[in-house]
Design a protein that fits this description.
19% strand, 6-stranded parallel beta sheet, 7-stranded parallel beta sheet, 691 residues, Rossmann fold, globular
């Protein structure tokens, strides 16, 4: 954050960031963030509450209105947003409830063939890939229909997850439908599945326009009679004339590429069928389904071993650059994709490239070609029979040519962010350094949105950046209502982070209140209030210890986000290493960061250590009935176990407090709070497990 940036405070609204300032509160020094609201109102935010501050993110270029403090306008806006979000979320949870209530097929545990096939995988599974596979198989063994989303960057091993799930379904006598957005990807999946399962009696068929009409009729007949186990195809699979004898698993690859009508047909296939969705760049709405718990989510973020990021550069169109890039790649024995997404002049572009590099073998391909010719060109490229493939974006999904390690995208400004990320994923699929050149007519002539898209692709060139790409895409385009029911200005009103927080709270409340029966054991405890932890001591990072204010702000943020004592210990060691011995004020700050999660787990709204006493405020029964039903008795028992004197008293505000006597140091206070939290967790765990 820079001075002048718009920021959102979850509790107070939208203001402007005005830097850090050292202030004195009750004779104790602390550093605070200064915010300026409408009409010059100022607010100083304790560095311990930095997690409540977010840089404002709405539609790019949108100037938010500053909030007027003390009017209640911000609370009303949040309440209105939460109500509307709940209305939408309620409908989605009903869909989830219907799925939970319907009877699915419980697949048998892994058999010997399954273990044998998995052992034949030529690569070692990454940890994320292994956990996604385990989660999918565990879902399939449940009597409730599976609906799992597996997100993973291009080339991170999602297809292997699908192969194993499909083989598991076939062994129980069920049919599998694999639906993909392009004919080329269908062809590639057929090859992958056939190669992986060729040792087993599994009948695999393809259904797309690559398949001759007579053969399509034969395939549909066999599907209906149950003579085909796995059918892989485009939206042709959901046509009216395709009827499955016993469909057990539906696998959808890159769902966001399908049109609305195809998605509706897929939904009709789904009610009692296990569904596995694979995607590299999840659209925000897809992510929201997972946030709601209406869809289970597995993320594959670990890149395969030896994989290197793709070097991504934006350039104005240059024949010299094109020639040099092609000659370099072909010179090291590789192949090149040249993407030009205009069919009418693609042949002319291929001729230009041929003239630039006369000794290089160039072919072109596009989706309006005869299917047999297109298929032959693609297979020839995979087999290395020519060097440069000039094509439209038909290569975007799934074309896996490990020898192609340079891609040049012409008129990159015309492509969406997710498309560019997918195109870049066609290269860099082995351990060689790969290159992606994004060509534009003129860098100065780009619109602001186009420039931002291209810069985002260039910036997020690290492996596993599909999620970041999705979030930046949302930022650039403006989000409206992420749940998809209607376009609205939720995010412009409250900012992206706050919207997420409101959405989270709304979902948690619905899950633990209205839909507690639906979620059963999964119904979480209602969200606990944010605790305040105060001590009678100076709490800040001295300016003579860390002089740079931006660095201090970042350190405060990191301290505020710590969730375990181990994180605090590691952070202390890092500070000592970078800046020298940790001063007393920072030591106090780190102790507070260790105490806050303990107070939160106990659902205590306020913890104070002063005058050698520890004050533990208890929420009122109206504010937190969950605390009084589940935690109050174990809390009192744990206090008695500490062996220290304590009394229960009403505070001036009418709130009950436990006051622990003879607590000489902050370290003692931390130890007492930690011990109480641990005992309460142990006492309530069995009860919550059966709740």
């Amino acid at each position: 954050m820079k001075p002048g940036d718009f920021v959102v405070h979850v509790d107070y609204g939208i203001g402007k960031f005005a830097g850090l300032q050292t202030i004195t509160v009750r004779d104790q020094k602390q550093e605070a963030v200064r915010l300026v609201f409408r009409d010059g109102d100022e607010l100083f935010v304790n560095v311990g509450a930095l997690h409540k501050l977010h840089k404002y993110t709405g539609k790019e270029g949108h100037q938010p209105r500053l909030t007027k403090l003390g009017t209640g306008a911000w609370d009303r806006l949040k309440a209105r947003t939460k109500k509307r979000v709940k209305d939408i979320a309620r409908d989605l949870i009903k869909i989830y409830a219907a799925r939970r209530a319907s009877d699915g097929f419980a697949f048998a545990p892994d058999q010997i063939w399954q273990r044998e096939m998995e052992a034949s995988f030529q690569y070692e599974e990454t940890p994320d890939q292994a956990s996604a596979i385990d989660a999918v198989k565990a879902d399939m063994e449940q009597p409730i229909p599976m609906d799992r989303l597996v997100c993973g960057d291009v080339g991170f091993g999602k297809t292997e997850v699908a192969v194993r799930a499909a083989f598991k379904a076939v062994q129980d006598g069920k049919q599998v439908a694999v639906v993909v957005p392009t004919t080329i990807l269908a062809r590639q999946h057929v090859e992958t599945f056939t190669k992986r399962l060729d040792r087993y009696p599994v009948r695999i068929a393809q259904l797309s326009r690559f398949v001759p009409k007579e053969e399509q009729k034969e395939v549909t007949r066999k599907i209906e009679e149950g003579d085909i186990d796995i059918v892989i195809g485009t939206h042709r699979v959901v046509s009216k004339d395709v009827a499955f004898k016993d469909l057990g698993l539906l696998i959808v690859d890159e769902e966001q590429k399908f049109g609305v009508s195809v998605k509706e047909k897929l939904r009709k296939l789904r009610p009692n069928v296990d569904t596995l969705t694979l995607t590299a760049t999840p659209i925000p709405r897809t992510l929201q389904f997972s946030l709601l718990g209406a869809r289970d989510l597995s993320v594959i973020q670990t890149p395969p071993p030896n994989r290197q990021p793709v070097v991504t550069e934006i350039h104005a169109y240059s024949k010299d650059l094109i020639r040099d890039a092609i000659l370099y790649e072909v010179g090291r024995g590789g192949q090149v994709f040249f993407v030009h997404n205009r069919v009418r002049d693609i042949e002319q572009v291929a001729s230009v490239i041929q003239s630039l590099a006369p000794d290089v073998r160039v072919r072109y391909a596009h989706g309006q070609m005869q299917s047999a010719e297109l298929e032959r060109i693609m297979l020839d490229f995979m087999d290395g029979k020519f060097d440069v493939l000039v094509s439209t974006t038909i290569v975007e999904s799934g074309l896996d040519v490990s020898n192609a390690n340079t891609i040049i995208v012409n008129h990159a400004e015309r492509h969406g962010l997710a498309d560019l990320h997918q195109l870049r994923g066609r290269v860099g699929r082995n351990d060689q350094r790969a290159f992606c050149y994004l060509l534009v007519p003129s860098i100065q002539g780009l619109t602001r949105e186009a420039r931002q898209r291209l810069q985002a692709v260039e910036e997020f060139s690290d492996l596993g950046s599909g999620f970041n790409i999705s979030m930046r895409d949302l930022d650039i385009r403006g989000a409206g209502n992420m749940l998809g029911a209607e376009q609205s200005g939720f995010i412009e009103d409250v900012g992206f982070e706050t919207y997420h927080q409101i959405l989270d709270e709304a979902v948690q409340e619905l899950r633990s209140d209205e839909f507690a029966e639906v979620f059963g054991e999964d119904a979480p405890a209602p969200p606990a209030p944010e605790p305040t932890v105060d001590v009678a001591d100076d709490v800040f990072i001295p300016q003579d210890y860390v002089t740079n204010p931006v660095e201090r702000l970042d350190l405060y943020r990191r301290i505020g986000s710590m969730e375990t004592p181990e994180e605090a210990d590691a952070f202390r060691a890092e500070l000592a290493d970078r800046f020298g011995p940790v001063p007393h004020e920072v030591d106090t700050l780190l102790r507070l960061s260790r105490m806050k999660p303990e107070a939160h787990s106990l659902r205590l709204p306020r913890v104070v250590w002063k005058n050698e006493r520890l004050f533990l405020s208890v929420p009122t029964p109206e504010a937190d009935p969950y605390f009084h039903e589940r935690i109050f008795e174990p809390f009192l028992a744990a206090l008695a176990e500490t062996g220290r004197r304590y009394v229960m008293k009403d505070s001036r505000s009418g709130r009950l407090r436990a006051i622990v006597q003879d607590v000489p140091t902050l370290k003692d206070a931390e130890s007492i709070l930690s011990g109480v939290a641990r005992q309460v967790a142990e006492a309530t765990a069995p009860e919550e497990a059966t709740a």
